Amino acid sequence: MYQAFIFLLAAVVSVPIAKRLGLGSVLGYLLAGTIIGPYALGLVGHNVEGIMHFAEFGVVMMLFLVGLELRPALLWQMRLPILGLGGLQVVLTTVLFSAIGLLLGFAWQTSLAVGLILALSSTAIVLQSMNEKGLMNTEAGQNAFAVLLFQDIAVIPMLALLPLLAMTPSSDVASSIGLSGWQHGLVVLCAISAIIIGGRLLLRPLFRIIASTKLREIFTATALLLVIGIALLMDLVGLSAALGTFIAGVVLADNEYRHELEAEIEPFKGLLLGLFFISVGASINFDLLMQEPLVILGLVLALILVKFTVLIALAKLFKLQTSQQWTFTFALAQGGEFCFVLFSFTSQHHILPEHVTAPLVVVVALSMAFTPLLMIINERWVQPMFVSQQDNDQLPDTIDDGVTQVIIAGFGRFGQIVDRSLTLNGFSTTVLEHNAAQIEYLRKFGHKVFYGDASRQELLHAAGADTAKLLVVAIDDHEKALEIVRICKVHYPHLKLFARASGRIQAHEFHKAGVDVFVRETFHSALNLSEQVMTSLGLHAYDAHRAIRNFRKLDERHVRDIIKLEGDTKDYVSMSQKNRKELEEVLKSDINDIEELEDMQWGEK
Amino acid sequence: MTKILIIYAHPNPQKSRLNKQLAFAARTLDFVTVHDLYQHYPDFDIDVAHEQALLDKADVVVFQHPIYWYSCPSLMKEWLDLVLHNGYAYGKGGDQLTGKRWLSAISTGADQSAYKSDGSHGHELDQFLLPFKQTAHYCAMTFLPPFISHQARQLNDAGIQQQAQQYKTLLNNLYVQL
Q1: In Å, what is the CA distance from A50 to each residue of A45, A54, A313, A369, A370?
Q2: pLDDT in tens, B107-150
Q3: What are the pLDDT digits (tens) for A66-81?
Q4: Does B119 touch chain A (CB under 8 A)?
Q5: What is the CATH number of the domain that holds A240?
Q6: How far is A521 from chain B (nearest CA, A)?
Q7: What domain range includes position A455?
Q8: In terms of domains, do A221 and A79 share one?
Q9: In this structure, are A307 and A426 located in the same domain?
Q10: B66–A602: do the CB atoms touch at under 8 Å?
Q11: CA distance B98 to chain A (A)
């Protein structure tokens, strides 16, 4: 309880300050960690490592969320950067670090082990920082992600490989699981197939059943159960939990419950990741740093420089845009959280001696802490050099690549027409619908619909309200629709709001709530029908068209007038009475106004 | 058996006196099709393929409309813009109208004297018809002498009937010549 209080307090105090200073939340968390850590205030005990292990689950959740954003087709498109860029980064960095180790007189086994471990970067820090700066959809962001993904995959063979480098022979890891190599491979294959097949076939009906209970906490529980279950399964077969949940995420990326899942997992991920960063900060061993400050800082510098060199060379080789090369390089030049895991793994298996790993853990932690600073340096001093060039380079890039422009809340008969007409014309939409049965039915026809209650801010967020341009409110429940409008006005003031109103009164209320555009649902279709009635009764089609056009204009003007009036008198009581009187006035004024609107014949004197 | 297609463009046909009677008279001829543009496309959304199919069947195309601002009503301009496109009416492969005849049947609000160099409109009506004439030429069509009704709003019933009868005779003659 006390510990939780300290951690939360540290986060609540330091993160807003760091953000205000433009340092980003990651640095805020890390600083908070060092301040409450055993080497500064000492408010938390020495079980920081235990907390860190627990908090690493935040990374697992993050990769699940990343997977959710990444449809399999998109992942396939990224195969070149993942294998090429990622593979080369790991290999080259390992070679360089090993060479340095050899030069410093270490045995080749030690050098190679350290090289392998230090080749990894921090998924948690890089993704969180890039997300916060809105860099994930840039070239640098995508390539950085590809490299990180390869590294996460590379951890698995590393865990198998490292014991072979042991200085003193110890128990074989493979045999410690009790399986031979090929059996182990088979088990891994089965586990991944289980995730893919299960995710495809079982989860949709499961989510539908859960969703139809309409109990939110059960849905939350299901989402957590899914992530934890997969993590456990991965642990059991000796795979990285992050990789397993990432695969699960990708499998579910096409699922209609994707946004709801995102909304449920997101807060847990955020908190755990924060906790993780704090524990990284708290675990920095300042005793070691104080004993040999020059050596440690020199090593940090060397670590960053070596990674930097490899990254910038690769960025050039893979022909990233110049400005993106630097963002990519600055982002990835650090050691990662897997280093902690691997260093403790290597100590346990006597692969690396304690006096090598202990300072390196500090070096990695410091390099992670410096990452947000490096990214700020890049942002403030490096990127401005490319501004003019970037403008030229990026001009044709302004079309959003698959980023949702329009969110449609409600996929009833009204929302469907809106969605179909928009998507057919190439606008990307995200649809949110609360009725699980409805979704199932529509999915059969190939619509992209997601399950969820659009009046929840988290879901709007997951659907992309931050980056979308406008929101169409097309749900039947008027109170809920107003609620959505109010939420958007507070949290997403940039969103243009379009609403379907069932009638005049609802239209007033939408207007008062700040909706930009409203349309009365039956108005236009009724007028359309009326126009056809007039034509079939013998009125010339163009006369009928104009008559209806005039009626529409007058009526819409009238609704606006009433809204203005409404604001003055605030008299809601006799609304229906007033409405009737207004209608009479409309009809009376129509007769005058239509004469006035009639066009004149040209060319007469 | 359409031989003569009348593209009729009047935005206010119920209020028109002359054009309504002209159209009525033309409809009595079985080799004439009167195609009321404002009736078919009140929302200006012209079905190009349908229009071209109508043109294909016709040997004479009559454009019947009042003169507005020295030109045709806006929907007919839209019709020209969309239907007579490159590859159909002109340009490479655009020979679908070759040899067909173009007749402008137009009405004016003012009397003939306004269309003089010293009149209120400053030019002969013929000069204002130059865009239509050249359109016909560009589509390899023959531009026939226009059928003109001046001062359409001022004509009395007898005058209108006379005009309608002349219109009918002209259409008949065109048909016989085919």
Answers
A1: 10, 6, 38, 20, 23
A2: 998 888 899 999 999 999 999 999 999 999 999 999 999 999 99
A3: 888 777 877 888 888 8
A4: no
A5: 1.20.1530.20
A6: 21
A7: 396-521
A8: yes
A9: no
A10: yes
A11: 32
